[in-house]
Amino acid sequence: MASTFAEKKVQLVYDNLNDEKKRKQAFTNLTEEASDENIIAFAKIIGSLATDEEPLNSLFVIESTHHTL
């Protein structure tokens, strides 16, 4: 069974001032080699652009692999 990298993306989650539901922002097309450290550093830079009332809360890294049976 062969496995092939399909995609990697990051989803940033912000506190939402006007709603209990969190606000989300996605960045797609990350390279397979993108390390967690680099992704977190990128997220912190993007998070620094957010307002103080709606700060970056957390992030998800989503990686997909294609398996041939």
TrEMBL record:
Residues 3-64 form the DUF1659 domain. It comes from the Bacteria. It holds the Pfam family DUF1659. This is DUF1659 domain-containing protein. It comes from Vagococcus penaei.
